[in-house]
Amino acid sequence: MTPAKAILLFLAAAVGGALNSVAGGGSFVAFPALLFAGVAPVPANATNTIALWPGSVASAVAYRRELGEERRLLLPLGLAALVGGLGGSLLLLHTSEHTFVVLIPWLLLFATVLFSFGGRVSRRLVEDAHAPIAVAVAAQLAISVYGGYFGGGMGIMMLAVLSLLGMTHIHRMNALKTVLGALINGAAVVAFIVYGAVVWSAGAVMVLGGITGGYAGATVARRVDPRYVRALVMVIAWGMTAYFFVRTYAVR
Questions:
Q1: Does residue 34 sit in helix, strand or coil?
Q2: Residue 152, by phi and psi: left (phi above 0), alpha (psi -120 to 50) or beta?
Q3: Is the pLDDT assigned to residue 190 strictly greater than 80?
Q4: Which of 20, 140, 145, 242 is least surrounded by Cβ atoms within 10 Å, i.e. has the fewest?
Q5: Beta carbons of 92 and 45 less than 8 angstroms apart
Q6: Distance of alpha carbon 46 from alpha carbon 130, whole angstroms
Q7: Angle value at C-alpha 159, between 118 and 145, nearest 5 degrees
């Protein structure tokens, strides 16, 4: 690997780790960088997961104070994250990426609308306290399968689910989302290592960048007014949705 590619991958992982700690979507920076560096798509996907996983763990540590108030949701959603992440990673290793590439814009649109309006809708439609948790577990399982397979935008999807549950404090939402993302990617990491799908020369450089960006991003985000962070999440969400619709369908 050339020094220029190593620097590119380190910076992409740092930005991706920071973005994941705030709003999700770090894979949309790190994954293209791997492709640009000459890594094939499926190994790039696996390497991207390995690279950003330590950063998500570092972010979870930085958010440990906010997480303490949401532990009641961690067990059911965490189990769904582990099972789905493992299932999605095995799906990646045994199928093509085409179906998920086509679905990405629609998944992002659904997630962005939920994040933008989910809290308002849930307050009107949900009366049984047990129903939204069951719905959230099912949604988390589906998101985790997608996360284990590709993962781009899964953070925004998880924030949408938490919004649907009625959560509004963005830092607590980010804390829970970050831990769930670490569980999803942790399960996928095991599968990718066992199947030998990781390009370690690129992954080692990106691990360092991901840890740096993940911890720094979470630390900075905790000190910002929650309204501004939520606004940033929405800008990123709608921007990514528009970009992937254009990228997927405008060229057809």
A1: helix
A2: beta
A3: yes
A4: 242
A5: yes
A6: 36
A7: 110
Give the residue among 162, 158, 159 at the shortest CA–CA distance from 144. Answer: 158
Q: In angstroms, rounded to a whole number, what is the distance separating the alpha carbons of residues 182 and 78?
A: 10
The pLDDT of residue 42? 82
- Quick count: other Cβ atoms within 10 Å of Cβ 125? 10
Q: Is residue 198 predicted with pLDDT exceeding 90?
A: yes
Q: How far apart are CA 223 and CA 213, in angstroms?
A: 16
Q: Is the pTM of this model over 0.85?
A: no
Helix H, strand E, coil C: the string for 219-248 is HHHCCCCHHHHHHHHHHHHHHHHHHHHHHH
The residues, any chain, with a CB within 8 Å of residue 168's CB and separated by 6 or more, are 119
What pLDDT digit, counting tens, does each position of 14-48 carry? 888 877 766 666 777 888 888 889 888 788 889 98
Could you tell me the CA-to-CA distances from 68 to 160, 178, 188 in Å, in that order?
A: 20, 13, 26
pLDDT at 111: 76
Pull the structure tokens for residue 33: 């960088």
pLDDT score, position 127: 47
Give me the residue spans of the domains in the chain: 3-250
Helices assigned H by DSSP within the chain = 3-22, 27-36, 41-62, 64-67, 71-94, 98-125, 130-149, 154-164, 170-194, 200-221, 226-245
CB of 154 closer than 8 Å to CB of 94: no
Half-sphere exposure in the Cβ direction for 179 (13 Å, CA)? 23
